[in-house]
Design brief:
The chain is an alpha/beta fold. It has two domains: 63 residues, no CATH class; 283 residues, Metallo-dependent phosphatases (Purple Acid Phosphatase, chain A, domain 2, 4-Layer Sandwich), CATH 3.60.21.10. It has nine helices and 16 strands. It has a seven-stranded mixed beta sheet with strand order 3-2-1-14-15-16-11, covered by helices on one side. A seven-stranded mixed beta sheet has the order 4-5-6-7-12-8-13, with helices on one face. A hairpin with a 2-residue loop joins strand 4 and strand 5. Helix 1 runs antiparallel to helix 2. It starts with a helix and ends with a strand.
């Protein structure tokens, strides 16, 4: 096995040298590193750790990465006994009685992390929303929604409230890598982004580097992305919140597929939707390729990316006018949140959508 690893390392180093010549070569070096990780899966754990540590250090020293990687060393998870934990997800809150009920429901279930999928107060400031979510704010991680960038002041309030110096970031928790994306504020506050030049944004470069590292980290089992806008959605009459941005999907879904993103959680559409595992369709991107090898609620070693929309925080509903074939389950009449329990050494994700009325409306398991 050590001989095979040595040969693969030689091949990998050659590809790294070629990567200096062009961007395309750098892409191939990333693929080579992934091949190394896959081929050496039975090697000693310390070999993996040494390889990944050296790869990260060499890449940083070569100057091929954003400042993020020089300022924030990746946290390595080496524990053999990962503690079970849970996280809650919901967006499109508002400052309503239903919002308060959603927060109360989250309190009752007491997840370790609460992810806000954007669109908080829907007003000129965020105070009404921060007052409502104050019981859970100390465990919140947030992404920015389109109603959160209606003015430079509104965006600044969100960043300051959650101690962020920019609106996209990532972190590891146990064996999960979380990437928090911003689909809004790379553009002029208060304007509708045209998404015409996504590949030339700082965020795009950040995402490429971030996912490349996460995909070869042997201690990361799941890669999860949070963003406000969705890639796919059933229709909601004339409401454009249920009309995904084509350019956003065309740029990022192939990238997510390349680096093995497992789940995309989104809001924007004021309803709940869960898809089959999906592959990008290069012929017609609005109709993704569905992986139907598993049943509708339990997925073992799933392939493809799940997309789950949880825009049910309390503001109002976008009612469906159809159900797309790639959507397994959808509902547009019950506020609530999605809870994910991470159990069995981080190998199993159990999802349950809890409604404010006290019902479990959807449940599923992802197993690796």
């Amino acid at each position: 096995m050590k001989g095979i690893i040595s040969i693969l390392l030689v091949i990998f180093n050659l590809l790294v040298i070629l990567s200096i010549i062009s961007f395309d070569s750098r892409e191939y070096s990333i693929y080579a590193s992934q091949m190394y990780a896959n081929s050496a899966e039975n090697a000693d754990t310390n070999d993996f750790f040494t390889f990944f540590q050296n790869f990260h250090a060499n890449a940083t020293n070569e100057g091929t990465n954003d400042e993020f990687y020089q300022e924030n060393a990746r946290h390595f998870i080496r524990s053999e006994n990962l503690i079970d934990f849970s996280f809650g997800i919901v967006g499109d809150w508002g400052c309503t009685e239903n919002t308060a009920k959603t927060v109360g429901l989250i309190q009752n279930h007491d997840p370790d992390i609460v992810f806000s999928l954007g669109d908080t107060s829907y007003g000129p400031d965020i105070k009404c929303w921060t007052d409502i979510v104050s019981p859970i704010s100390d465990k919140m991680k947030v992404v920015i929604g389109n109603h959160d960038v209606m003015s430079p002041s509104l965006l600044e309030q969100h960043l300051k409230e959650f101690g962020l110096d920019r609106s996209y970031y990532s972190f590891d928790y146990n064996n999960i890598h979380f990437l928090m994306m911003d689909t809004e504020s790379s553009y002029l506050p208060g304007s509708d982004p045209d998404f015409s030049d996504l590949e030339n944004t700082e965020q795009y470069r950040f995402v490429v580097n971030d996912l490349a590292y996460a995909s070869i980290n042997p201690y990361i089992k799941w890669i999860i992305v949070m963003s406000h806008r969705e890639f796919y959605s059933s229709l909601c009459g004339g409401h454009d919140a249920c009309e995904p941005i084509k350019k956003l999907r065309e740029v990022y879904h192939p990238l997510f597929q390349r680096y093995g993103v497992d789940i995309l959680f989104s809001g924007h559409a004021h309803n709940y939707q869960r898809t089959y595992p999906l592959f990008y369709n290069y012929v017609n991107s609005s109709q993704p390729i569905i992986d139907e090898e598993n049943d509708k609620t339990e997925y073992r070693s799933p392939h493809g990316m799940f997309q789950i929309i949880v825009g049910t925080g309390g503001i109002n509903f976008d009612h469906f006018s159809n159900q797309e074939p790639y959507v397994i389950y959808q509902q547009d009449s019950s506020y609530g949140f999605l809870n994910i329990d991470v159990i069995d050494q981080g190998n199993v994700l159990i999802g349950k959508y809890y409604s404010n009325d006290g019902y479990i409306l959807d449940s599923f398991q992802f197993i690796k």
